Amino acid sequence: MLKSPIASDEEIAHELHGELIADGLIKIVTESMALSKERPSCSALAEVDLEPMLGEQTPLESLLAIDTETTGLSGGSGTVAFNIGFAYMREGEVEVTQYVLTKYSGEKAMLEEVSALISQCEALVTYNGKSFDVPLLVTR
């Protein structure tokens, strides 16, 4: 039986349009996307008062959206985030950054990158982050 060749980290980074920033860790930064007044919307949101959640003076640039993709959902010590994505505002545009593990050896560098990004924000925006994403990252 023929085995498929295993791609190197450099080849994977190239295919993902990313950059190998440490052994086993690829960083992918999308091009910034301008926020347009002509974008799709959900009309039901017009009825929701968002101010109590954010506060009147909360600048969008102080928020950091985060999501993790993991090796499992148990949340135990064996669960590893192999992909962590962020979205944030920069100069009126949305920028998305992802960190992708190709080897477990890249986890320490990924957690250092994540810590640096999180330390620059005032609030995290997550879905299930309070009960899953954040505790997972804290325990690693």
Explain what this protein looks like in three dimensions.
With 140 residues, the protein is of the alpha+beta class. The chain has a domain at 9-34 and 60-129. 24% of the residues lie in helices and 29% in strands. The protein has four helices and seven strands; from the N terminus they run αβββαβββαβα. Strands 1, 2, 3, 4, 5, 6 and 7 form a seven-stranded mixed sheet that branches. The termini are far apart. The model has no long low-confidence stretch (mean pLDDT 83).
Could you give the topology of this structure?
Elements: H1 9-15, E1 19-22, E2 25-29, E3 33-34, H2 51-54, E4 63-70, E5 81-90, E6 93-101, H3 107-118, E7 123-125, H4 129-139
Parallel strand pairs: 4-7
Antiparallel strand pairs: 1-2, 2-6, 3-6, 4-5, 5-6
Average residue pLDDT: 83
Number of strands: 7
- Counting copies of identical and different chains, the oligomeric state is single chain
Low-confidence stretches: none
Structural class: alpha+beta
